[in-house]
Backbone:
């Protein structure tokens, strides 16, 4: 069943009931200030770093779902004998609404609800060039008589460090500090605004108020939750000024509306950081000038409306970089709007802040951010360039890297450390994608530090060489790359062993102790090693390119010999040199990762192994909801395999459907020219195609999830971990570059679609470097192959449009056959 619908013309998803299976959220913000907001107004806000600079509290593992948020309470006092309290987003009071609608757009959300002929519309967004969240609240009286109402706002401040905020109560309950000005219209959250910090937050409304509160206990009551605040029940704020304990910000505005009358109020939740040369006058005294400037900018409806137009225009322009028109409405919807939008969110967040990642335990992932770059480099190449430099700066001199870094400091996370042996190769992948997209070779000559220490800096190309050499020099007894702590599958920990099973185990690093090997990394090395060799050639270093290809050939040979199991590729060798992902195994006989990645890298294609591997995937791993990560599921714990077997069968790495690596298999099918099969895999995990089963899938029907429960699971088909997943980037790469077939090379755009036989003709507008390409594809019922390519009226040989500097527009006709 559905809980809403797509409004493609408005670029919105419309939710028609607040009772979705799980909270369905949106992301607000594009640069440094971000909010998460759900379809019931839950969520939280932070500046740059969801751990270190959190503005508002959110309670994870919460009951009921989605608690806390930024709420507006409406108390209808028209009938003095029976006042009614409700929220435009339904939560937290959960009064039954007469009408409800939430529209999640690109960087904004709107809520329109009504109760007893009073309508409330809340528009919430983060403007393009300010560190604040704006909520425009319009109340309309649709009664035939006058209405007497009270509007209460509510946010709960986090004491900045979200991790410390939820643990260090003996200190934090004494630190909360606020200041109230303008008769209560503006509330300053200035906790620790002394020598410790040079920033503060504000919550303000562009109206005189009839009361305010800054103490949570005073507003809610000591034993109440946000669903039943004392102040709202009483209809009168207490004008409390918090000192310690839990500070909040709440305004009360009493509203008298004639029949048919509307009134609008603008609330601003902002972050202020004083310039270094503009310190405060004395400890604890807020420098209000930056805040007043911000509030003045959004004081009027006209200013807010203009800021929203600017935001919408930004997204329309950004998403025009790749646009398809076809007879397949759901493909167009995902490619043109939601897939690219999700790619931008993963650029901003990596895996740090969602409803499944608290923003506390993880920073920006090395592997994650490199993969995400594949999906957004065509949108924001300048910011992609800086992201590559930031990631490379966390690398070590031997080529390994911190697995994560904090976005605020851009320094490696020592709590997680290194040892994930796929990480180095992802840096090559991201850099290659950037150079192919932009033609910018200067990035390869940029001096980049190791571990953020410029005294040991090398060029970025030097970093890529370290990445390549790390894999080339860390191989095991079968000639395959060492896995280290893990490869892409963080839960496959094969350097674990026990001298006394069940009593103890040790984990070894990449070059010590038992030497588990990864066939998946072998596939990566073949693919991205070749891309490294191409970069070397572009810099004129043919000797390095030749050396690289010699190393690649060795790993290729190991993959088709030691890495082949007869019908599919082995997943790995464990610390004892036992096969993992082999017919010799009792459980976990076949894994998805090497089948997809080895074939998309070209391994086994000419030998006939690739066809067998993908056939085995279809026969053994495929389901109606997507391709499972492994089979058979592990039914008992295998110490020698690490965490992978600790999950119940059908969930996560233990035979779940990882949407992230389904695109690898789809791409692999395009390598073999199987357009029908490639699209079938794409369709099974594509949100627009599974919207009708939202009661089963549960997560948002407009964005991808990381995982869908596999057929061994009790809740087969249920999605988890939506939004922040490499699925977004890899699926966009799959559909845009391989299925639709517009692939950026160093020499120009390659046009080589691989589509279902009945897909039909289609047109793509693609911005590439400094030109716009208008591409018409005549399918002719063919799954793959270009028989004729015409560029600006002239037929060209092959399927690559030669890039010509200075040519700003290309008209391309590609005839398949």
Residues:
């Amino acid at each position: 069943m559905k809980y809403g619908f797509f409004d493609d013309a408005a670029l919105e998803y419309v939710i028609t009931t607040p009772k979705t299976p799980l909270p369905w959220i949106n992301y607000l913000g594009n640069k440094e200030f971000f909010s998460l907001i759900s379809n019931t107004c839950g969520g939280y806000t932070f500046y740059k770093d969801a751990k270190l600079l959190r503005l508002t509290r959110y309670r994870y593992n919460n009951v009921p779902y989605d608690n806390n948020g930024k709420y507006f309470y409406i108390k209808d006092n028209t009938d003095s004998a029976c006042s009614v309290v409700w929220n435009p987003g339904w939560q937290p009071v959960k009064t039954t609404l007469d009408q409800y609608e939430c529209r999640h757009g690109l960087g904004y959300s709107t809520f329109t609800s009504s109760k007893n002929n009073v309508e409330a519309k809340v528009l919430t967004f983060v403007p393009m060039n300010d560190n604040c969240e704006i909520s425009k609240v319009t109340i309309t009286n649709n009664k035939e008589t006058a209405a007497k109402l009270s509007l209460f706002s509510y946010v709960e401040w986090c004491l900045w460090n979200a991790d410390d905020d939820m643990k260090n109560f003996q200190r934090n309950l004494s630190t909360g500090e606020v200041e109230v000005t303008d008769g209560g219209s503006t509330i300053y959250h200035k906790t620790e605004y002394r020598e410790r910090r040079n920033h503060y937050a504000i919550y303000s409304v562009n109206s005189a108020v009839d009361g305010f509160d800054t103490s949570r206990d005073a507003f809610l009551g000591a034993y109440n939750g946000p669903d039943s605040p004392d102040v709202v029940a009483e209809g009168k704020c207490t004008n409390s000024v918090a000192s310690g304990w839990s500070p909040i910000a709440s305004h009360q505005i009493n509203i008298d509306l004639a029949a048919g009358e509307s009134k609008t109020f603008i609330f601003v939740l902002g972050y202020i950081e004083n310039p270094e040369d503009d310190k405060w006058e004395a400890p604890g005294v807020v420098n209000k000038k930056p805040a007043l400037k911000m509030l003045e900018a959004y004081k009027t409806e006209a200013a807010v409306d203009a800021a929203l137009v600017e935001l919408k225009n930004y997204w329309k322009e950004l998403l025009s970089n790749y646009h398809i028109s076809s007879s397949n409405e759901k493909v167009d919807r995902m490619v043109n709007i939601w897939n690219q939008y999700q790619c931008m969110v993963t650029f901003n967040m990596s895996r740090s802040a969602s409803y499944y990642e608290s923003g506390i335990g993880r920073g920006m992932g090395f592997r994650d951010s490199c993969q995400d770059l594949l999906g957004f480099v065509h949108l924001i190449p300048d910011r992609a360039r800086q992201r590559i430099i930031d990631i490379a700066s966390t690398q070590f001199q031997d080529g390994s890297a911190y697995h994560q870094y904090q976005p605020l400091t851009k320094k490696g996370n020592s709590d997680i450390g290194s040892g994930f042996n796929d990480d180095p190769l992802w840096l090559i992948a991201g850099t290659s994608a950037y150079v192919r997209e932009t033609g910018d070779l200067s990035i390869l000559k940029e001096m980049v530090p190791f571990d953020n220490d410029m005294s040991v800096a090398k060029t970025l190309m030097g970093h890529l060489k370290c990445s390549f050499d790390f894999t080339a020099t860390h191989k095991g007894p079968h000639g395959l790359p060492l896995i280290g702590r893990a490869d892409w599958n963080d839960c496959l920990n094969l350097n674990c062993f026990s001298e006394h099973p069940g009593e103890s185990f040790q984990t070894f690093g990449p070059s010590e102790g038992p030497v588990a090997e990864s066939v998946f990394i072998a596939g990566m090395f073949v693919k991205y090693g070749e891309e490294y060799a191409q970069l070397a050639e572009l810099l004129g270093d043919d000797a390095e390119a030749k050396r690289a290809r010699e190393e690649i050939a060795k790993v290729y040979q190991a993959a088709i010999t030691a890495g082949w199991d007869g019908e599919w590729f082995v997943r790995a060798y464990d610390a004892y040199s036992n096969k993992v992902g082999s017919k010799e195994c009792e459980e976990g006989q076949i894994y998805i990762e090497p089948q997809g990645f080895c074939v998309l890298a070209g391994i086994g294609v000419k030998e006939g192994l690739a066809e067998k591997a993908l056939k085995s995937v279809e026969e053994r791993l495929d389901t109606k909801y997507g391709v499972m990560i492994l089979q058979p599921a592990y039914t008992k714990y295998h110490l020698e395999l690490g965490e992978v077997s600790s999950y119940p069968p059908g969930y996560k790495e233990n035979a779940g459907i990882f949407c992230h690596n389904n695109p690898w298999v789809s791409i692999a099918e395009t390598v073999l020219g199987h357009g029908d099969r490639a699209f079938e895999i794409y369709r099974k995990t594509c949100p627009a195609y599974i919207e009708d089963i939202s009661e089963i899938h549960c997560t948002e029907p407009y964005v991808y999830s990381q995982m869908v429960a596999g057929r061994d699971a009790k809740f087969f088909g249920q999605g988890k971990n939506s939004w922040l997943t490499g699925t977004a980037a890899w699926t966009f790469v799959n559909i845009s570059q391989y299925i639709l077939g517009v692939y950026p090379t160093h020499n120009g755009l390659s046009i080589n679609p691989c589509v279902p036989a009945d897909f039909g003709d289609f047109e793509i507008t693609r911005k590439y470097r400094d030109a716009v390409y208008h591409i018409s594809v005549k399918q002719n019922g063919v799954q793959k192959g270009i028989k004729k390519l015409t560029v600006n009226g002239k037929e060209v040989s092959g399927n690559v449009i030669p890039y010509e500097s200075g040519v700003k527009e290309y008209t391309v006709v590609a005839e398949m056959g």
